[in-house]
Structures are given as structure tokens and as C-alpha cells.
Amino acid sequence: MASIVPVTLTALNLRSLRRSCSKGQVRPKTRRAPRIVATAHLNKDDRQTWFASSQSLTYLDGSLPGDVGFDPLGLSDPEGAGAFVSPRWLAYAEVVHARWAMLGALGMLAPEMLGDLGVIPAGTGVEWFRSGVIPPLGAFDYWADPYALFVAQMVLMGFAEHRRAQDFYTPGYGATAPLFGLERVLGGSKRPPYPGGPFFNFARLGRSKAETRALRTAEAKHGRVAMLACLGCLAQALVTGSGPWRNLLDHLADPAGNNVLAYVGLL
User: Fold this and answer.
1) How many CB atoms are located within 10 Å of the residue 183 CB?
2) Structure pTM?
3) Which CATH class is domain 88-138+189-266?
């Protein structure tokens, strides 16, 4: 009986409290639970490194995309052997060369492959080293004189490279210097490697800091592989006299007879 009385009183108190709340007489005060947010901090010493030295880790601190501390020649060391070249310029030049290498590696392979597969006319599917202006190797039969096209390309590329260099020394130059009204779409992030804007970032990638960091790191990694690929295509062309697509087909047809070891005696 003694145990029933407290339970009954408690039930009555709860019913009276609900009636009071429904009439607007009493509103119990509730205390909001504290919000707990878990955050993780990645120590720069725990990042992935590749043949890094204690010296290189003093200036390659992981702040740059794709930074793994690799600098055996000390080129980015502001106080070492690489002091004659600005580390800022080296980081910028790597991004630019990486982008050109990705385009170049695709350009070295695609025409030859597409021509062989019949996707484009066979006459245009020539090896990459025969499509430019290299007199010893001949030139492709363009609609105009190849040397005239070469000069025109140098003028146009020189103008573009001049603006790019100005944007490096004066961040934001590309978005402010007059260019027939096109400067409005050429970005204005004041970060020379990543100008942004409707033209250079038309897909609006990198909406968050994490996504931007991941994309820039992926760009650096793919660009480094592409630079090695371009070097490999150049070496193969000098040794075999063929393009990368023909080299691949020859290797697949006879892996034991067409490989790098078979050509060591020709080097």
C-alpha cells in the first residue's frame, strides 16, 4: 500500500501539469542539451610523404596541393641550393606544366589511335612528332604553310603567356586589364594558379574548401604522371621511330620481343 501512494500522487501531478499547460497557465522550462561537435585535426607530421628529408619538411609543410615533401635537389628550399629560383614560381610553374602535359599526353595518343581505329580520316591520324614543325621529320600537309602557322601560333601563344606572366607578378591582372570586355570572365581570385571565373571554372567546381583541396591535389598528381608520360612518349619516338599507339600494339602482339629491354642495345 505504501508503494502505491507515491505512484498515484505522481500520476495526479502529471495530469494536473498537462491541464495547466493546455490552459496556458504553466509552461515548464526545459533545458536544451548541449551540442557536441567532434572535429578531427590532421597533424602535418602525419601526412603522406615520399622520400622526404628533415630539411625538405621544414619548408614543404603540406600547405600546397600534392605536397609530399619530395625535393631531393632542394629546388624549393629558400635558403639552400634552390634559392636562385623563387619557390612560389616553382609551385606555380609545376601547375602550369602539369596542365599542358595532360593536354599533351592526350594529344600524343589520340590522333594516332583514332586514325588507326577509323574514327577520323587515316590521313590525319599521324604520329604526334609529324604533326608539328620539325623539319628533319617532315610536316603534315596543312591548309597553309606550316611555318606560317607556326609563327601565328607563336604570336597568339606569346600574347596569352604574357598575360599569364603578368597575372603571376600582379595577381588579379587578368580580370582587370582591358581585353575587349573578356576580362570579366577571366577570373579574379588573385591566386595565379587558380584564376577561377566563368571561363576557367565554367563547371563551378570546388564549392567547399575540402572539395577544392581534393581537386587541386588530384590535379597535381595527374599532372605529374602526365609529365612523365610525355617524357616516355618522347623517348619511345627517338628509339623506335613510332608513336605511343603503335608501340602499344607492337608490345601486345609480341610482349617478349617488343619491350624496353629489347631496345637497350640501341640506346
Assistant:
1) 17
2) 0.73
3) mainly alpha
